Amino acid sequence: MFKIDRATAADAAALTDLMHSSSAYQGQYASILKGYAVTPDYLRQHQVLVARGPAGPLGFAALTDAELDLLFVADEAQGTGLGARLVRQILDLACEIGLSEVRVVSHPPAVKFYERMGARQVGTVPPKPPRISWSRPELVFSLSETDSAPARETTAGQGDRRRIRS
User: What are the start-end ranges of the E strands in 118-160?
Assistant: First the structure.
């Protein structure tokens, strides 16, 4: 199936390719990724987890300061629970380093996924033309003992075939 471990600088090109091949960022959402690359420096500076399958990366997610960043799951791995597993492991990392919450500025179609994972919407980030012409939901995962345990134990995403990336 797949294993999840820390990304290294050598993963940068493969993660960039995975991100740009995402069908969720075609059409109206394509502009946000135009010219964007996951760099070796980004991978060295942040805690990035990568899910590896036999043929290469199937998904990845990053924890940057107190934010879940760049959650991507390959189209062929959608609905397998991989996105939920990456989120749970990022939240576990956040707990280990003492964070009390993790912010997500979500891709609009991914909001329901994050809510099933236990995040709550707290606001909206306005558009930033010309690259981002749409509002983006802002959500927060609370990592307090009473709030985080149910969220991290969920099986959200298993069997769900919708495109659910941030």
Answer: 120-125, 136-142
Backbone angles phi, psi at 88, to 5 degrees: -60, -40
Query: Environment class of residue 10 by beta-carbon count within 10 Å: exposed (0-12), middle (13-18) or buried (19+)?
Result: exposed
Alpha carbon distance 166, 149 (integer Å): 22
The tens digit of pLDDT for each residue in 120-142 reads 999 999 999 888 999 999 999 99
Residue the block writes with tokens 């990336």:
165
- Report residue 19 as tokens: 């991100």
Question: Which residues lie across from 47 on neighbouring strands?
Answer: 63
- Calpha distance 124→105 (Å, rounded): 8
pLDDT tens, 61-109? 999 999 999 999 999 999 999 999 999 999 999 999 999 999 999 999 9
Residue type, 17: D
What's the token pair of residue 119? 């995040």
Query: What is the pLDDT confidence band of residue 165, given thresholds at 50, 70 and 90?
Result: very low
Cis upstream peptide for 126 (omega within 30°)? no
DSSP strand pairing (56-64 vs 47-53)? antiparallel
What's the Cα-to-Cα distance from 27 to each of 30, 125, 161, 164, rounded to whole Å? 6, 20, 19, 16
Query: Tokens 């059409």 map to which residue?
Result: 27
